[in-house]
Each structure stands twice: as C-alpha cells, then as structure tokens.
Amino acid sequence: MQLRKWLRILHRDTGYFIVGVTVIYAVSGIFLNHKRDINADYHVITRQVEVNLPVGPPFQEKELKPIIEAIDDDIQYKRSYMTSQGYLKAFIHNGEVVLDPETGKGELQMLRKRALIFEMNNLHRISTHKSWKWISDAFAAILLFVTISGIFILKGKNGFMKRGIWFILGGIVIPVVYMVFLM
Fold this sequence. Notes:
The protein is an alpha+beta fold. It has 2 domains: 2-38 and 116-182, no CATH class; 42-113, no CATH class. It is 52% helix and 19% strand. The protein has helices at 2-17, 19-33, 61-69, 117-125, 130-153, 160-182, and strands spanning 42-50, 77-82, 88-92, 95-99, 105-113. The chain has a 5-stranded antiparallel sheet with strand order 1-5-4-3-2, with helices on one face. The chain is elongated, with a radius of gyration of 27 Å.
C-alpha cells in the first residue's frame, strides 16, 4: 500500500512536470510528420513581381543588385545566373527571384520562419545545442517512469491485470503489425 501511494504521488508530480515538454514534442511531431505536405519550419511566400531590367543578357551583378533589392525591403541580393530556359534566377537571402529578361515579370519566393514552430522543431530534432540532448534524455526517462508507474497505480476492475493489460497489448500490437506488414 505504501508503494502504491508513493507511485501515485511521484506519477502525478512528474506528470505535471513534463506537461510543457510533452506539448512541445507533440505539436512539433505533428509538423515533422507532415513535412512532405507542408514546410515544417518555414512559410513560403510567393508573389508576382515586375522590374525594369537593363538591356541584356548578360547582366552585370552591380546593375542587378539594386534592381532586385528594390523589389522588397527584406531582400538581400546574393548572386544570379541565366537558366537553361532563358530566365534570370537571382538568389536572395531566404529565397529567390525568377524573372523573364524580356518582360521583367516574374516570381518572388521568400521563406519566413514559422514563429515558435521553427524553434520547437529544432528542440524536437535536438539540433540546437548539445546540452539539449541530456535534457531530452532526462525527459525520456521521466516519460518512461510515468508510463511504467501508471501501470501499477490502479487496482481492481480498472487495474493492470483486469483492464489495463488489454490496452497495453493493443498499444504494442499496433506498431508491431505496422512494422512487420507495412514497412
């Protein structure tokens, strides 16, 4: 009885402690699972543009830089080249501009970090700082404790040996079946 009481207390308190990290991992996990459907880290902004290009090609970099940067305040020109289809492709910080050299019409694509989601995804991937690896490991250990201690907290008809075992088996069978038959 004393063990079950301590398990309940520790299970509850560590469960409360890991709520924030669990929410971050869950939300970023959804974004990362769908990275083929949407860009998980960046929002892609696309818009049509028109500029007055000098006579060319070939274009001089010193002529192009002020023209490309005048499209938007956030544009920082890097370099450009002519594509095999005859378009001018200018690389800018966080994007690109593709222009028809004859008309000066084209498309601007810029990437903007998804506020908060970008940072959450970095935490999820453990790509920020090496110390986060240890925090992530501690979170995993606490999550493991909360999972295992939860098995032994309830007794009776809703306890592990009556009802819980079937849910646990279901939670094991689903990923095993997926791994064996669908991977």
